[in-house]
């Protein structure tokens, strides 16, 4: 896959260069400090994948992406989580929140279709799945809309559950069983009698602990460990 980097910070450029060099299927064709330089390059070169920072000089990464009539696959990189929801509407492959690990980088790469012709199929599938990308949490007298990718983990505590997202926590009167039945089981996995985890938010596994990208540590129960590992490490 031919790819380019659009990133104005040299340290971030170096990290992406190193990660790309360590993946045999990726071929780096250029590094650009602003989107206007990249725009000229894309007029004459065919690129499969674009690593795009959101905060750029002259024109933002999101505005640049919106201006492309036929963009390549895009993985967004940023230090700010508040742009995640807007990025989903642009059909990006993934959203990497800085600083990200090589393991998280590999998970993003794994989501990139190997054939550009499959993009239309993916877009159609994405449209069909739009209704599943968010859920309403009943918290007190309110029903609050939460995007699934924002959920880190869900914890049970006797009479209520706590839904922990990137930005805040929500208390819900629904039991843990309700979340297991309502959320896509290929993404949200029970790791303990009191915990459900979003596997896309896992940073690393160590012993009987799951380390999430926000620093949270979630236990893996003995009764759930075999199933959890077989699904996550497949």
How do the SSEs run, as a string of H and E? EHEHEHEHEHHEEEEEHEEEEEH
Distance between the termini: 23 Å
Low-confidence stretches: 116-131
Percentage of residues in strands:
25-35%
CATH uppermost class of the largest domain:
Alpha Beta
Mean pLDDT: 83
Rounded Rg: 19 Å
Q: Based on CA inertia axes, which overall geometry fits?
A: elongated
CATH fold-level label of the largest domain: Rossmann fold
Within CATH, the superfamily of the largest domain carries the name: Response regulator
Please give the share of residues in helix.
Answer: 25-40%
The CATH architecture of the largest domain can be given as 3-Layer(aba) Sandwich
Strand order in the sheet with the most strands? 2-1-3-4-5
* Class computed from helices, strands and strand pairing: alpha/beta
Give me the count of strands: 15
- What is the count of distinct domains? 2
Q: What about the largest sheet?
A: 5 strands, parallel
Q: Number of helix segments?
A: 8
């Amino acid at each position: 896959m031919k790819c380019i980097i659009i990133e104005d910070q040299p340290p971030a450029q170096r990290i992406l260069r190193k990660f790309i060099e360590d993946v045999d299927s990726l071929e780096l064709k250029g590094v650009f400090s602003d989107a206007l330089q990249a725009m000229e390059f894309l007029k004459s070169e065919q690129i499969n994948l674009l690593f795009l920072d959101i905060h750029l000089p002259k024109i933002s990464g999101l505005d640049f992406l919106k201006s492309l009539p036929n963009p390549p696959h895009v993985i967004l990189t940023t230090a700010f989580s508040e742009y995640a929801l807007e990025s989903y509407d642009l059909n990006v492959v993934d959203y990497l929140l800085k600083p990200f690990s090589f393991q998280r980088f590999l998970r993003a790469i794994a989501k990139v279709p190997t054939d550009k012709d499959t993009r239309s199929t993916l877009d159609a599938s994405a449209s069909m799945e739009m209704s599943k990308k968010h859920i309403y949490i009943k918290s007190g007298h309110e029903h609050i809309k939460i995007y699934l990718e924002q959920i880190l983990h869900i914890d049970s505590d006797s009479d209520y559950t706590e839904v922990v997202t990137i930005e805040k926590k929500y208390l819900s009167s629904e039991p843990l069983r309700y979340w297991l039945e309502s959320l896509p089981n290929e993404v949200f996995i029970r790791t303990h009698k009191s915990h459900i985890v979003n596997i896309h938010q896992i940073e690393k596994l160590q012993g009987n602990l799951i380390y999430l990208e926000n620093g949270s540590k979630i236990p893996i129960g003995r009764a759930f460990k075999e199933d959890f590992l077989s699904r996550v490490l497949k």
